[in-house]
Amino acid sequence: MGRRLGQHFLASRPILEQIAASVVANSPETIVEIGPGQGALTEFLLASGAHVHAIELDPLMVVHLERRFPAHPKLTIHQADVLGVDLAQWGPAALAGNLPYYITSPILDRIRKARWAIRTATLLIQKEVADRVIAKPKTRDYGYLTVVTQSWAEAAHVAHVPPESFRPAPRVDSSVILLTSRPEVPTDLDAFLKFAGHAFRQKRKNLRNNLNGIYPMADWEHMAERTLRAEQMNIEELRALWHKLS
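Above: the chain sequence. Below: its structure as tokens.
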């Protein structure tokens, strides 16, 4: 066991306790765990009394989990690729996950699509990605991923996780973040995110250049935003611009 499927197992008890505390803070009856691996976090989650649905792709890890938690009444193990799982099916639920670095963005998108059923998501991800998720406007890390995530969730930093906290150790630092679903999300979110994708297409170019060919140049003549870059605008300002142009 080790580097199969890009696995790095969290071995730091203090970090495991922090993650578990974040997940169970609102006393969820159901927890969805992505990538339980050897079950280190699973043990803490089960201690809360919630029912845990653990999604694990690796058949060797599934066998390990079944041996570690034999016939546990509060644990259901699903051998599956999380990218093919409907995460909303067990909602309302809290979600936890040590996300494989190479598929973090697709998993975040799956969580977004299940946002009505996922109340909170406590995620262990690469620090570089975490910084982009929780970024503020007019900062280096603020970009399309920030807008996509913060359009449906409040994003907060929970903990820094150095490489030595894992077995085997990755080559990069990690972070734990907490996503809390917003009570109201605009019904036109997908259409807005398509606009945002164009706006951030080339981060160093201004909005007029990035949106050229999508909206007539004449529409920009009297707009103060024409010389701004997308990274200089918060989500509300980007939405307002989208409505002006639509």
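Strands lie at 9-10, 30-34, 51-56, 75-79, 93-98, 118-126, 153-161, 166-167, 174-181.
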